[in-house]
Amino acid sequence: MSWGFLRDLLSGVNKYSTGIGRIWIAVVFIFRLLVYIAAAENIWKYEHDEFECNIKQPGCENVCFDHFFPVSHIRLWALQLIMVSTPSLLVVFHVAYRENREKHHNQKLYKSPAELDGGLLCTYLISLILKTGFEIVFLVLFYKLYNGFKVPRLVKCDIRPCPNTVDCYISKPTEKMIFLYFLVATSCLCIVLNLSEFSYLIFKYSIKCYLKRYIKKRQ
C-alpha cells in the first residue's frame, strides 16, 4: 500500500500543533513510518514461508503458525500507525470547518481559525486522548497475542493435525525481537509526548483563565 496519505496527513497537522506536537509528528514520521517502510516490512515479508517445523504432516505447519502468530507483527504495526495518526484528522476537519464558516458568513469570526482556543482546543485534547488510548491498546494487544515482547527461536506445537509435539523454528528471531523492542520504545515515547502535550495545554489554558479573572477583578 502507499503511505503517502499518512505523510500528507502528518504534514497538514504539523502547522496546527504545539512544539511538543511537532516532536511527536517527527517521531512518528522518522522513527516509525520510515523504519517500517525501509526495514521492518522486509524482515517479516516471508515469515510464513520461513517458518519451519520438523515434520511434513500436511496442515501441521500452517496450524502451528496460525496458533503462534494469529496476526502478523508487521500488519498489526501498520494498523497501529494508521490508528494513532487518524485522530489528527479531527483537528484538520475542525480548522476546515472554521474556515468554511468564516467564508459562509463573509466576516472574521475567529482571531485565527487555527488558533488553539475554545472548541478547537477541546478537539485537540480529544485527539491527544484518542492517540494515547490507541497506543496503550495496541501495546496490550501485542503483549497478549504474543505472550510478551520476545520472539523465541523455537516453539513447541501439539495442535491437531500434528500427530505429536513438534519443534517449529522462527526465522530471524533476534532481528525481529530488536525491531519489536524498537516498536515498543517508540510507542512509549509517543505516549509520553502525548501526555506531556496534554498537560502543557491544560496548564497553559488554566493560567490564561486565571489571568483573565485576575484582570477583571482588578478592573
From TrEMBL:
Keywords annotated in UniProt: Cell junction, Cell membrane, Gap junction, Membrane, Transmembrane, Transmembrane helix
Membrane topology: Multi-pass membrane protein
Job of this protein: One gap junction consists of a cluster of closely packed pairs of transmembrane channels, the connexons, through which materials of low MW diffuse from one cell to a neighboring cell.
InterPro entries attached to this UniProt entry: Connexin (IPR000500), Connexin_CCC (IPR019570), Connexin_CS (IPR017990), Connexin_N (IPR013092), Connexin_N_sf (IPR038359)
Cross-referenced Pfam families: Connexin (PF00029)
Localization of this protein: Cell junction, Gap junction; Cell membrane
Record domain Connexin cysteine-rich: where: 134-201
Gene Ontology, cellular component aspect: connexin complex
Record field: transmembrane: 21-39, 77-97, 118-143, 178-203
All residue ranges annotated as the Connexin N-terminal domain in the record: 42-75
Gene Ontology MF terms in the entry: gap junction channel activity
GO biological process, one term: cell-cell signaling
Protein name: Gap junction protein
Domain of life: Eukaryota
Subunit comment: A connexon is composed of a hexamer of connexins.
Gene: Gjb7
Family that this chain belongs to: Belongs to the connexin family.
